[in-house]
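pls read this stuff:
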Amino acid sequence: MNITPELARIHAHICGDGYVNVFITKRAPGSLISHPRKNIYYNDWIMAYCNKSRILIDEFQNDLDKCFNKRGLYSPKKYEVRAKGSKKIILNLKLNKKNSKNWIIPNFIFRSSNKIIKNWLRAFFDDEATVDTKKRAIFVTSINRKGLFQVFKLLKKLKIKSKINGPYLKAWRLCIRSKNVIKYHDKISFLHPEKLEKIKIIKMGREGFS
């Protein structure tokens, strides 16, 4: 499998604001006429990504198209891109049965170049991070302590210091503070417009960092 920035972003988005599921679906009557089957039901593997930022939705669709020749169907009411028939993608990206508690960053991301790591982190933080201009910090809160520690290790590979605190009501919080917020912006930053604007505000006041 060729590990590209697009592939890294797809994986990160599913870990962030995405989900995978398997639905039992009834075959269309027309398909049964042309190809008779004993079992009229089949498992449809779904991969979906939800975000109110159309910029991120468009990027996810374009990444799917480039990596797998699949764009997925966009629902504006749900702010969701849903890609049916994604069994091979889900298994190759090690996302089978992924949920908020058990997502992991696979070894093929850790073994990749800094460019791949940066793209994974940028997509994940676009979904999961909160940028606090008053505290001049970036926070990521998750009930998945193991996954959050993996994020910590990826940041460390880029020489960006962070800290994990908690638990707070069964959730943990990764914090990036002080000059490391500027490092994050310079090396990774955001595509999400609101978060990008907030981190720029923090950078403008960088003289106040210790």
The two ends are 43 Å apart (CA to CA). The beta strands are 18-26, 41-50, 73-75, 80-83, 129-132, 137-142, 163-168, 171-177. The mean pLDDT is 91.
